[in-house]
Amino acid sequence: MDKNHNQQLDGNYKKFFTKYTMLCEYLENNDNVYPNEKANKQLFNWVRNTRRFCKNGKMEERRVELLKKINFPFSTKTIIPFDKRIIQLLEYKKEHGSLHVSQTLYGRETDNYKLSRWVNEMRRKFAENRLGYKYVVELNNIGFLWNMDDVRIEKKINALKRFYKIHGHYDIPQKGKYKKLGNWVAGLRSRGIKTIRHKKWLDDIGFVWVGVKERKRRSLEKMNEVDMKVMSERLKRNHRNKIKK
Fold it and tell me: What is the mean pLDDT of residues 226-243?
């Protein structure tokens, strides 16, 4: 009896593993997006039934562990389409001024906490090279923040924009209330910035990469070049006039 029971269990596990392997292949070929009924009805039904078995506690642990490895959606509540997440993220930015959603500010049952988990999942998949190209492009198009360096740069850029709105320029003093921001700008102008994406963000707001002193020096140098050119032309004319006489 026990032997027959074990054989049945092994047979059922083989069937499970076959479907599991099919699902893994589907996810790999479809940018880690789970199938809907129209895309693959067979796998869609298997995912739905597997979710039900997990919910009822009828799924053995080794199967559950395999499902966790592919971020299996154990609850339908967690499955929100990518395009709707993009809309949520843009609405969050409209309200909070940033695409960075804190994972510590919000309670676990709130929409913002769930959105923060999705943001973190996108970052993790990108770092592991498991995020589809089209999703990377869409997220880049809205200025998605891929890591904490992005978050820090965004905060500095927002501070720059606020300063510019008040003063009309980016020549920030390195003392007083703007000392930290001024020192950061001075560092940018002397050393540049490593990431091309971050440089583009600064270029997009019209950031001036040359400081006041250097701009004056270049302006004076250009004026001297013009004066020398004018002087040279004047000497040539005088020389030609002398020859004519």
Answer: 66
Other C-beta atoms closer than 10 Å to the C-beta of 139 total 22
Q: What is the pTM of this model?
A: 0.55
Report the Cα 6 to chain-centroid distance in Å: 49
**Cα–Cα dist 84/153, whole Å:** 26
Q: How many CB atoms lie within 10 A of CB 122?
A: 20
Residue reference for tokens 């499902």: 67
DSSP one-letter code for 36: -
Do residues 30 and 47 touch, judged by C-beta distance below 8 A?
no
**In terms of Cα–Cα distance, which of 208, 192, 91 is closest to 160?**
208
> Given this model, what pLDDT does residue 230 score?
64
- Residue 142, pLDDT > 90, answer yes
| Helix intervals (H) in the chain | 2-29, 41-55, 61-69, 82-96, 111-127, 133-141, 148-167, 179-191, 196-204, 212-244
